[in-house]
Sequence to fold (412 residues):
Amino acid sequence: MLFLAGPLVAQELQVDTLQAASPGAELRVYLDCDDCDFDHIRREITFVSYVRDPEQADVHVFITNQRTGNDGRQYLLSFLGRGGFGSVEYTFERTVGRDATNDETRDAVNAAIRLGLVPYVVQKEGASNFVVGYSGSADVATDQQSRVDPWRHWVFTAYVGDIELDLESNRTVFDSRWGLFADHVSEDWKLRLRPYFNFDLTKIERDDEPDVRSSISRHGFDSYAIRSLGSHWSAGIFGSYVTRNDRNIRHRAEMAPGIEYSVLPYDQATRRAITVVYQVQLAYVDYFDKTIFDQTKESLVSQELSASVAIRQPWGEIFGGLEGSHYFHDFSKRRAEFFGVLSVRLLEGLSLRVQGEFEMIRDQLSLPLGDASLEDILLRQRELATDFEFSGSIAITYTFGSNFTNVVNTRF
Fold:
């Protein structure tokens, strides 16, 4: 289903074809989409020329997507005219159901791209050679909210058998993941219930010495209930339970009410979001072994404040933020995290991507008393004490040469 906004009248359309009857002056198009099949698009939509940089384009097609409440996918397509088409810009949506195959999804996106290119094609020389075919009626009223839903917006996803097995003559690695998502998404509520089970096993055989064996189990339950309080506010409560032997946690049960403020309206979140979240966390923890703080079980109260920015625009993307938390029984037990990703197109063909994450860690309450063995360290079977953790990367890319990217070759 396609909803048009801006200079096009909003109506329900299903586009079947937009094809050139004979070669004409070709429109130059730059595709900007992280989750599209570019080979398929170039094979199916052949009446335009695809260029490698937006500076070379007549039209910049910018596509983002997000998951819908029924586990489908909603694509937001922006068509940004450049040069002589600078005054022609608009955005519309294309929604694909959760049961759609990959091929059906690709066809739906292609149909939306074809339709979006119509206003540009008709202005090019040779536009009379093109034909638009569609089915449907502009008089059909579709009110999704009034449809009867026997599931009441609940969607269930089970994943069973996410199993990896790696066998060598002296080494065996087995990883398994299974669980269930139960999600409810409506205009007012966002709910989740999620049990999960993870088990990892590593076994190394050694000549004339005992085998090295490591087993890590991480099982638990996550849940939340989030209530919309308008276009800028929401409140929620999060509940969780976890047991994991690599972190010396026999049982940890946690309840965390919180509130979120969005500087920008929530309906802009696919492209721009600035949010601040505050939570209070109440937890009960039972440890496998006595900790370095001489505890075998304890009740904990902490608070956390976080802020984040997420911007995705045709020039690039920015994602970053900071988080800070501490325990009330001892303010020295605290943690702060700074993270960020910057990806920007600097000049024609020149792009820069920088990302990094830095944590100041002072809250490892579950560290077990005693020294870790070499096997525990190498196999990551035991958490180690640390004051900080940092990771980062930087990448610069420069592309030059032919402006056109029409040719598709999938050999090998």
In short: DSSP finds three helices and 20 strands in the chain. The longest helix spans residues 102-121. The CA atoms of residues 30 and 60 lie 5 Å apart. The mean pLDDT is 84.
